[in-house]
Amino acid sequence: CFCQVTGNLDDCACDVETIDAFNNDQLFPKLQKLLESDYFRFYKVNLDKPCPFWTDNSQCGMSSCAVQPCSPNEVPEGIKSSNHKYSADANTQDDDCEKLEHLGAVDASLSEKTREALQNWNLHDDESERFCVIDDVESPDAQYVDLLLNPERFTGYKGPAAWRIWNSIYEENCFKPFTVRRPVYPQVFHSGQGKDAPAFYRWLDGQCVEKRAFYRLISGLHSSINIHLSARYLMDDNWFHKKWSHNVSEFQQRFDSELTAGEGPKRLRNLYFLYLIELRALAKALPFFQRSSFQLYTGQPRKDQAHKELLLEVLRLADTFPLHFNENSLFAGKEKEAGKLKEDIRLSFKNISRIMDCVGCFKCRLWGKLQTQGLGTALKVLFSRRQIEDLTKPNVPRPAFQLNRQEIVSIFNAFGRISTSIKELKNFRSMLADFR
Ligand code: FAD
Q1: Suppose 229 and one of 122, 154, 312, 406 were both cysteines; which one would form an S-S bond, judging by CB atoms 3.0 to 4.6 Å apart?
Q2: What is the model's pLDDT at position 385?
């Protein structure tokens, strides 16, 4: 039931124990080690993009919201020079494209042939398959950030500014111009008591399986962020010392108290749902990473090879998980309607990635952007079944399926966040047991 989102979403018994044991004992330690490697710790991001939706966007001045970008000599040369170059295939394609882009920049009156080639480049750029907006990493405002030095944790970002973001994100769930009576969710918000939750769930249950799945992904991401801020809460803050650790009552208030009016367990189940989706996407992407031309290129050949082997170990393990989500249950209706639905969801998700540029706290914006990009990449993988199958066939000269470095770094780090949340849940469960 967990793995096939059909019927009533909330009467499923989650096989939490299987996921906990698989994640906490097997996958989590390997994944953490991988994410500490140079390839995965440096992420290029533009945190200065203006909010496209409203102009009165204030930025928080709290020190815990600050992001420390890398100085140029901190980032390995191989990463800086390769940027999107991650495999021999893509290198050739990128070189062609760079030449063409350069041509386009110096000569406005391009020949028919060059224009056609540029159009092909746009096709290769697979924008139409993307579920999120990707930052222009060539922009002078884009900077490398060391994710290990800027961890996701409590920042103090809250109140109307944070609610406005969450509210806008959930509004995307209404798939405008699809007309749904929308007041339900904002009221859940403003009361904070969830008194309208039954009406909301009645509405949600009436939606098709894809829209319910979409809601659960967003809600799962929301749970994960709130688990992280509770697990790395600022417990002691003075001139000499800052201490970040578990805040059990913060966690309890958010997931296990009267305040949530019974919503807490559902929100945690949504976290497990998100885990299954991203896990499945990684397992599906295995053939892409297995190709001999794929490298985790940082310019340090021995380390790069060792990290590629570790990456494959993680993905093979992901592939062995016994309760995989069956993505074939999504968009399985009549071809035309399924296509329209997929496009609606893709555009809604793209809008969510744009909303991240409106988050007023830079640290929250960094991790929000990375995690929506990672989830968008997971959806791109899940819905590229045919192109990924082509990767395993001989004689397909230039595979249509590609992931660039930004997508690779974001999907693994996003999954790393969810995997850490699952692990932290176990810690909180045992702390709560001691508490009682
Ligand atoms: P909020 O978490 O703001 O939630 C608002 C309302 O949404 C709740 O009242 C409830 O009705 C509903 N809700 C809550 N959880 C769920 C769920 N899982 N599913 C469905 N509905 C739900 N703060 C940090 O300290 N560190 C961070 O790194 C951080 N990153 C953030 C990233 C983003 C993109 C955003 C928008 C916010 C981030 N925040 C971060 C802020 C944090 O998520 C909360 O908004 C803040 O702590 C205030 O919490 P709250 O109790 O008012 O409820």
Answers
A1: 154
A2: 81
